[in-house]
């Protein structure tokens, strides 16, 4: 056949018969996409891998346990020919040709009438990469191009702004604990598409440096209002920019709903009729201990973990935390915003029955280059924090899990 380029097309296979010959590794790799496309899949093969068998058991494909026979492709729209028997594959592709069924062949790209592109997905788009001719086929190269494009779209290094679907509004994005690699793929993409970013002090601040020059970056901590007006001022800034038709990202540390006042911002936007989407983030309450080698649960040690705010002291009338009950729990206690009050917190836990020898770890600036871990016990933690000059932001872990790891 002359070396014409393949003609790229997207097949809409929902409800249409697709015949797969051979139940080995090739079928195992290709079947999930055919299932996702809603195809009516008939697998013809005496054997199948365990994963393919599981697809048949789950009713995702119909499996006929036998060898290929002439006539199998008669009613197919599309065929994947991938048996280990070259002669059977040749007979099957001849049948496909007779019935004008497009077919892919795992053993002979030249004899195939269709090729499977290397595919990937990002934000509602399928990226499919094909080599131009059979002679130039290099599956690793096409896969590498696919990976580069999909990764670029996901992490925002390849910016392809939406034109029709891009709606102005606010995205409340949980940025994770600080390491720029620990934001979600969706968060990173929205950041890359933003016109305005309003960022907190905590979170992946390094990502802000990568934004294109036209993006307006606003430091939430520096919005000029009185201390107690800060949240209202942030809400106003979000509304003001969104109402100008801009795409606004509110970049927050960790997860927006873990001591992040995320819902207050969602409510303010809803009241003003501004569309808002919330993107979860990796909370420091779990990831920062993990980064310092502390699991919040461990088999045989802790079957629960409780995350509390320590921003007000236990005897403060504004405190909503029942420290007496927490002292009775056997699991892990994770305290955020607790560095200033840790002395009073430790005293209260001990006063309500927790052992003064209970291990405590403070992890400061977790997941960043400045991360440090300081260990103590409930009896010594107040003095240790002073002596070691532990500063916020820090996550405090109280419980036996502190000592189970090899340490980092
Ligand atoms: C206002 S809360 C926000 C929590 C955030 N929404 C989350 O899910 O991680 C701020 C507190 O989170 C903790 N924190 C956040 N990032 C941290 C980090 N990288 N290292 C240590 N503590 C961190 C500290 O206890 C800090 O005082």
UniProtKB/TrEMBL annotation:
Record-annotated Tetrapyrrole methylase domain positions: 170-381
Pathway(s) annotated for this protein in UniProt: Porphyrin-containing compound metabolism; siroheme biosynthesis; sirohydrochlorin from precorrin-2: step 1/1
EC number: 2.1.1.107
Keyword terms, alphabetized: Cobalamin biosynthesis, Lyase, Methyltransferase, Multifunctional enzyme, NAD, Oxidoreductase, Porphyrin biosynthesis, S-adenosyl-L-methionine, Transferase
Gene Ontology terms describing biological process: methylation
A single GO molecular function term of this UniProt record: uroporphyrin-III C-methyltransferase activity
InterPro entries: 4pyrrol_Mease (IPR000878), 4pyrrol_Methylase_sf (IPR035996), 4pyrrole_Mease_sub1 (IPR014777), 4pyrrole_Mease_sub2 (IPR014776), CobA/CysG_C (IPR006366), NAD(P)-bd_dom_sf (IPR036291), Siro_Cobalamin_biosynth (IPR050161), Sirohaem_synth (IPR012409)
Enzyme class: transferase
Domain of life (superkingdom): Bacteria
Recorded catalytic activity of this chain's protein: precorrin-2 + NAD(+) = sirohydrochlorin + NADH + 2 H(+)
SUPFAM superfamilies (UniProt xref): NAD(P)-binding Rossmann-fold domains, Tetrapyrrole methylase
Gene3D superfamilies: Cobalt-precorrin-4 Transmethylase, Domain 1 (3.40.1010.10), Methyltransferase, Cobalt-precorrin-4 Transmethylase, Domain 2 (3.30.950.10), NAD(P)-binding Rossmann-like Domain (3.40.50.720)
Protein family membership: Belongs to the precorrin methyltransferase family.
Name of the protein: Uroporphyrinogen-III C-methyltransferase
Source organism of the structure: Streptomyces kebangsaanensis
